[in-house]
Amino acid sequence: MQNVSLFSQIAGASSRTVRIVVDGSPVDVPEHANVAAALLCAGVNVFRHTPVGAAPRAPYCMMGVCFDCLVEIDGLPNQQACMVRVRDGMKVKAMAGARALV
Ligand code: FES
Is Oxidoreductase found in the keyword set (predicted)? Predict the structure, then answer.
């Protein structure tokens, strides 16, 4: 995942964090954030690449509609990052192309 920070927490928000692992690197993120918000605050701005054309994608709607925030969470592909709350120890990976059929 590429890291360029465009987002930050609002002033006065809780400073408590949990540690998640993003593409193998530990990152401290706000404890009440969803995965998409946490990754954006951490400077991640590419969450996946499309199966056709490998175009980069990042969250757009932040409410479960657009599916541009799909990531792998704890080994499960195609999870909507905007709909899942962070948890200490969570492992998040960027998605590249279509998921494997099982
Ligand atoms: S950002 Fe649109 S579904 Fe998650």
Answer: yes
30, part of any domain: yes
Residue 101 maps to a domain: no
For the CA atoms of 85, 88, 93, 98, the dihedral, rounded to the nearest 10 degrees, stands at -40
Atom of ligand 1 nearest to the CA of 61: 2
Q: How far is the CA of 68 from the centre of ligand 1 (A)?
A: 5
Cut 0.70: pTM above it: yes
Q: Cα–Cα distances in Å, from 87 out to 2, 4, 18? A: 22, 23, 7
Structural domain count of the chain = 1
**Nearest atom within ligand 1 for CA of residue 64:** 3
